[in-house]
Amino acid sequence: MEMQQLTYFLAAAQTQNFRKAAEQCLVAQSALSRQIAALEQELGTALFTRIKKRVTLTTAGQDFARYVRGALDQLQEGQQWLAEMHAGRRGTIRLGCIESLATAALPALFARFHAQFPQVQLKVLVNHTDEVVSAVERGEIELGLILDPHVRSELLITRELFRQPLHLLMSVRHRFARQGMTTCTLEQIAAEPLIVLDATSRMGQITQRIFAQRNLPLRPLVEIESVEGLKEMVQQNLGVTLTLPALMRPAQIGGDFVLVPISDVAEEFSFALVYRRVGAISPVARGFINAIAQSV
What strands, in cross-sheet order, belong to the sheet with 257-261? Predict the structure, then answer.
């Protein structure tokens, strides 16, 4: 059974005349008649009742026409879907992201992308930076949105998006905030009760490294794996923490929290996209890479 036969069959079913169907399909009537006869032979049943120059569908032909129309409609939808997928307008982006960016940055980034490409879906794996990088390397996800990448794999491309310096994050009720402090030193921070992420997270590793470089003791009041748990404890004024502005939702700053630059820490930390150097990246993922790069 061939597509051409089904096309001829539907044309004949519509016109109830082999000659008109042949004209509609731009083919000789004899060729159309042979193809329909071959289709009937393959199906083992007559599809048309032939009376002189006029043909009518048999009961079997009427039922078969309904199925053929449905099948061709689905085929056309499939062809349209593939065309849109290749054009980057449809498909699924498999993305890995650290927790803070998943809540602070990713929703706004994808909202802008979704406005342009509403048929594109997003599947997000939330994990620590190193685990996200490993998932990209294994091909489990296409893209990773990460902090402070230390990627040495020849299989991966790291595309830096922007850099930011460390800030002190505290509650609006903290005494530094009430005093109107606009900048601080790491030594001042070390004297405060500290809430820190554990060493499995990149932010936790950065905090440990910064304190060690300056020979300052790091004795946190709370060490926690959850970013949202850390923020809640800071909001409750249990202590302060180190963070980067991009890891905070804009609405949080000035409301529940205050961010203050750290004057004696000049180092900046990068946010980056990571993806495979080898193997094809889907058009929708490539479009998302370009959209993120343009937005930052």
Answer: 241-243, 167-171, 257-261
